[in-house]
Design goal:
The chain is α/β, with parallel strands linked by helices. The chain has nine helices and ten strands. The two termini are 43 Å apart.
Length: 296
């Protein structure tokens, strides 16, 4: 992608995201992700309906009528976007690749955080750490993160969720909100996921393209694994092949969902329908925010 095309795409994402954040996500984000506590702000005169437990008795005694302490939420949080850039993220049958959708989701989450005065950082990974952008809270910083997700050319193609989470654990010491955006075509990250879930507020965002788990019956097809580069010819019309494929993918999906459930972590599943340019991935994201807000 040419530099001018990247800039144009980032600008388009900024404009589209700003409207969504202002209309929907900013308030939802604020209500779902709380600050670290309450801090003293000021003292003011008591008003009818105020909680008497907040009366400042020293000031009240000095002036002869009641004053109360006012507290505000200690708001500033840190958001870390952990984004999978492995080879499988370049697949997409709906007009957008999983990588493009990951960039759009990251833009919404990052601008929501920025509007609430929170810092945002980013870890881009394959089966190694490709890039780390430390948390900051300026608009230009957010635009840089979006640009990197869209245009960064990774050196590797595999998936290493375990390595990404281990790097997060060793690098980000302060409790943060972590969005792990991936298709989760990996294994061996069970234990580190649970550890990170205890240390940080971790939310998984799972991307799956319908064409990946619903293979059309069109005879012999040559396939290339985008992560390993291996080539293989398969008969998609073979009923046994279809059965085994569906069984394998169903098992992967069930294992991922069970892992998040057992770890007591949130997971937003985005199943992208094929040949649907108008796929609205916002609906499951909004539903997640509302459901989580209802739990708090």
């Amino acid at each position: 992608m040419a530099e001018k095309d990247i800039f144009k795409k980032v600008r388009e994402l900024e404009i589209a995201t700003r409207g969504l954040v202002n209309q929907v996500f900013s308030g939802e984000y604020h209500s779902v992700f709380k600050g670290r506590g309450m801090e003293f702000s000021e003292v003011r005169e008591y008003q009818y309906g105020d909680d008497i437990r907040n009366i400042d008795w020293n000031v009240t005694a000095r002036f002869g009528h009641p004053f109360i302490k006012v507290f505000e939420e200690e708001r500033e949080l840190t958001v870390i976007l952990v984004v999978d850039l492995s080879g499988s993220q370049n697949f997409g049958s709906s007009g957008k690749t999983k990588k493009q959708i990951a960039a759009e989701l990251s833009a919404i989450l990052a601008f929501s955080a920025l509007k609430n005065n929170d810092k945002v950082g980013c870890i881009l990974f394959t089966d190694t750490i490709e890039k780390f952008i430390p948390p900051r809270k300026k608009k230009g910083h957010i635009l840089r993160i979006i640009k990197e997700i869209l245009a960064f050319e990774p050196e590797r193609t595999g998936t290493g969720i375990k390595q990404a989470l281990e790097f997060l654990s060793s690098t980000i010491k302060k409790r943060s909100i972590v969005f792990l955006i991936s298709d989760f075509l990996d294994d061996g990250y069970d234990q580190i996921l649970k550890i990170i879930g205890r240390k940080h507020d971790l939310v998984g965002i799972s991307l799956a393209d319908e064409r990946e788990y619903k293979m059309p019956s069109v005879g012999l097809i040559n396939f290339i694994d985008p992560e390993s580069g291996k080539q293989i010819t398969l008969d998609t019309s073979d009923k046994q092949f279809q059965k085994q494929l569906n069984k394998k993918l169903s098992a992967q999906l069930e294992a991922r969902n069970k892992l998040f459930a057992v770890s007591k972590l949130d997971n937003v599943a985005l199943n992208i329908p094929r040949n649907d340019d108008d796929f609205n991935y916002l609906k499951p994201l909004i539903r997640f925010f509302k459901q989580r807000a209802a739990r708090w």
